[in-house]
Each structure stands twice: as C-alpha cells, then as structure tokens.
Amino acid sequence: MDNIWTKQQLVAYILLYIANIDLKESNSERNYIMSRVDRDLFDGIYKEFNDDNDYTSINKIINAVKTHNYEYNNSEELYADIKLMAFADGEFDQMEQSVYNYLKKLLQS
C-alpha cells in the first residue's frame, strides 16, 4: 500500500483499528466496514492492517489524518463512522470509548 492513503483507505484502516481494539473482530464489525468501502479496498487495507503492530497503526493514522487535513476540516462524518463501528457488535465498551476519545483528540490536534 502507498504511504499516502485515500480518505476511503484511511476510513477503512481506522474502522479496522476500532474493530480490533478488543482483540476480537466480529462479523458485524467486518460487515459494517465493508458497507463503507468496496471489497478490493477492504482486502488491501485488511492485509496491511494485519501486518502492522499497534504503534505502527497509530502512526499511520496520525500521518494520514495530517495528509488529509482532518484537523482543519469537518471531521464529524469520520467521528460518526468511528462511533458506529464501535457499536457494530452491539457494545461500546470502556476500551472502545477510550480509543474513540483518543482518536477524536488526535483528529483535533
């Protein structure tokens, strides 16, 4: 995958990050992601995500957010996607809330 993602690739990666924060990715979470991006894009990002560790994932998200100037643009749609992803498995547990708040903070910095 290129070092510069499209916004759709960034959304897919962030959603995968959220889906895996509790170390278990459910079918409903995967289905939600695929409702937001096409299958080929998902497959490429999924492979890249699985090859990354947590530190690498956060750095990739930070760099991609800066590339697309989310910190200066309206990020509400991305926040909504993140929150809906967290609820995709029917729960919004404490870990997901913490990561949601952390990502929101990253996007605003």
Give a nutshell description of this structure:
The chain has helices at residues 7-19, 27-36, 39-51, 54-67, 76-87, 94-108. The protein is mainly alpha-helical.
What does this structure look like?
By secondary structure, the protein is mainly alpha-helical. The protein has a single domain (7-108), classed as TerB-like (Orthogonal Bundle). The protein is 71% helix and 0% strand. The chain is built from 6 helices and no strands. It has helices at 7-19, 27-36, 39-51, 54-67, 76-87, 94-108. Helix 1 (7-19) runs antiparallel to helix 2, helix 1 runs antiparallel to helix 4 and helix 1 runs parallel beside helix 5 (76-87). The longest helix has 15 residues, at 94-108. It is globular and about 30 Å long. The protein starts with 6 loop residues before the first helix and ends with a helix. The mean pLDDT is 79.
The level-1 CATH class: Mainly Alpha
Average pLDDT works out at 79
Distance between the termini: 26 Å
CATH homologous superfamily title:
TerB-like
Which architecture per CATH? Orthogonal Bundle
Q: What's the number of helices? A: 6
Give the total of beta strands. 0
- Major β-sheet annotation: none
Structural class: mainly alpha
What general outline do the C-alpha atoms trace? Answer: globular
Overall number of structural domains:
1
Rg, Cα atoms, Å: 13 Å
Portion in helices: over 70%
Q: In terms of per-residue confidence, which ranges show pLDDT below 50 for 5 or more consecutive residues? A: none
Report the order of strands and helices: HHHHHH
Strand residue content: under 5%
CATH topology: TerB-like
